[in-house]
Specification:
homodimer; 434 Repressor (Amino-terminal Domain); Rossmann fold; 3 domains; six-stranded parallel sheet; 16% strand; DNA-binding; HTH_LacI (chains A, B)
Chain lengths: 339, 339
DNA sequence: CGGAAAAGCGGAAGCGTTTTCATCCCTACG
DNA sequence: CGTAGGGATGAAAACGCTTCCGCTTTTCCG
């Protein structure tokens, strides 16, 4: 095992194997014809020297960087964490690197990312997750002329992976209606979804449609909150405090909010589901522990699907955009019953 | 605004500004002397053309890729999500990209990452967060000869950012002892920390030391569990079920486990803190909502500190390794009282 | 005012890789 | 047996950028 002051190049490998750099490259990349015996010699030499391709040099000539960019406003929230892990899983199998850009809404660095970071040809394609970009950002995104896949609702007119948020909330609401509930509140998010994610607004609309369809327009109400466990807890503490105005059923914008609501109910001594039925959306990893009835989605699978969609389009950029709507299903647990 | 069939190069910018590529490069990178008027012309031309440097070509010649790698076994858990966001924040300010490698323990792709991904000179330095690498992996990491910073306990002999896990658990335990508790259990993690993170084992040791110091060795006990909210919930359900063997105080390996324990206690009708005191470690974003007494740490700040440590060493590789022990502090809330 | 130093700039080399093109040799087929 | 075809290989160009080197011009100071 020879030691190099600096990393060995393909020239070093070629010399050690007694071939030209061209042949060494062919042997190692698998492109072009090379005799089996030669290939073995090259591979042996490469292993012996601890050779690893310099991805920058390779990218320069091929124009492919073998990485994809992921832009997301959050990594800590369950949905995004799961999506990210799914993307990673698919990318690692394809030997692609993942370059992460965290763009919290309204931060200065967010503008930097769009203006400065995204244009450097560091990646071959891009996945935007749960992003609600403004016009300028959309422009900058399309300007890149890179294959793009969107996850989680916002429709850029490109390939897209999502659930039907509208239908998910409708199903959740209809579940409560079928159980006999009439006074059903929707908890979480803000009215137009500007401050939360784009899908949240669609879920609210799905709830409203189900209510209207059952002739319950009058009873529709929306309690805004931050989209988080404490957010749900806080708003539920207010909403459930007065027994006279308390609804019998709650549809939460997502499981995190639903868990906050469940916790608040417990704290207030309100029995779930006897006195209050709660249904969430997500099937969060804690949903089972809280016995939460919810509409299941699989963000991990969505991440994988998005990455695969993107990888396909890296291989063949002429492929038309594809829209994948992932299935959802009601998961019945112990947080809902007849009123 | 001229449109290019392909992205404009620095040659295009130079031509538009009426200078040589060399001068254009100097003007844009800020290295080397260039007249103010010339710089302005070049910058104007670059903006007009929508020029953005090809980072691969630049990396090839400078040997710096302006990216750093982050290796972590999780992104969804609170601690790692916070760390990741902190790292991002610091890196974005320095115009560095973040390349993420998710290495779950025992997966095939983990081996791939160490064998294949890490050696491609895609990044200039590396941060490992909460990793418990085996010997081969440590070898591969040091083989890279790249500046490295470790977060969260495992000591590779390099620069490092961490809290004193041992002391944190000791403080938590002593808090209960001072309140008058004697029968105190430690919940979460496995004995040697092999399956959970490295710091968890140190926390267990800190608990044991505090117990021993108070002459309570005999009463020391450790209830193993997955390090998660459901994990804490599950083990607490068993531990608290039998009133005769129920401890009066619990030290949880982290707040996620502690929250699981609190929830289990509520479900079992055990009053916190009247019948059971619980103290966590972390100051998780949900700790306040659950009224959890805990030992606070700030993973977001640790992420920032680690990134800064690394960036400094990128600028001057001769800098000696530095070990930053971040402070912790007991945060008193409503989950602890005298027994 | 004269000379030294510094500033400003262009030409060209070079980073490590892939790929085109040309060459050589072997096989297979008429 | 002659030749077409294809497999295997090497030489060299090219990718886009930064930087070294050298040249000219300006500035500064005694």
């Amino acid at each position: 095992m020879e030691t190099f002051p600096k990393s060995p190049t393909i020239g070093d490998v070629a010399r050690a194997a007694g071939v030209s750099p061209a042949t060494a490259s062919r042997a190692l990349t698998g492109r072009g014809a090379v005799a089996p015996a030669t290939r073995a010699r090259v591979e042996y030499a490469a292993a012996e020297l601890g050779y690893s391709v310099d991805i920058n040099a390779a990218s320069l000539v091929t124009g492919r960087s073998h990485a994809i960019g992921v832009v997301s406003p959050s990594v800590g929230r369950w949905f995004f964490g799961e999506v990210l892990e799914g993307i990673q899983e698919a990318l690692q199998q394809a030997h692609y690197d993942l370059v992460l850009y965290h763009v919290r809404r309204g931060t200065a660095s967010r503008a930097d990312v769009f203006r400065y970071f995204l244009g450097r040809r560091r990646f071959d394609g891009i996945i935007v997750a749960g992003l609600d970009p403004d016009m300028a950002e959309v422009e900058q995104l399309t300007q890149l002329r890179l294959p793009l896949v969107s996850i989680g609702g916002y429709d850029l007119g490109t390939s897209l992976v999502s659930i039907d948020d509208h239908a998910a909330a409708r199903v959740a609401t209809e579940h409560l209606i079928q159980l006999g509930h009439r006074d059903i509140a929707f908890v979480g998010g803000d009215p137009d979804g500007r401050k939360s994610s784009f899908g949240d607004a669609k879920r609210l609309a799905g709830y409203r449609e189900a209510m209207a369809h059952a002739g319950l327009d009058e009873l529709s109400r929306h309690a805004q909150s931050e989209v988080s466990v404490p957010g749900g807890y806080q708003v539920a503490t207010g909403l459930l405090g007065d027994q006279r105005t308390r609804p019998t059923g709650i549809v939460a914008v997502c499981d995190e909010v639903a868990i906050g609501v469940v916790t608040a109910a417990q704290r207030l001594g309100i029995s779930v589901p006897n006195e209050l039925s709660i249904v969430g959306i997500d099937d969060h990893e804690h949903a089972e522990m809280f016995g939460l009835t919810t509409v299941r989605q699989r963000p991990h699978e969505q991440g994988i699907a998005a990455a695969q969609l993107l990888l396909e389009r890296l291989g063949d950029p002429t492929l038309p955009p594809e829209r994948i709507i992932e299935p959802t299903a009601l998961a019945l647990r112990a947080s809902t019953s007849a009123p």
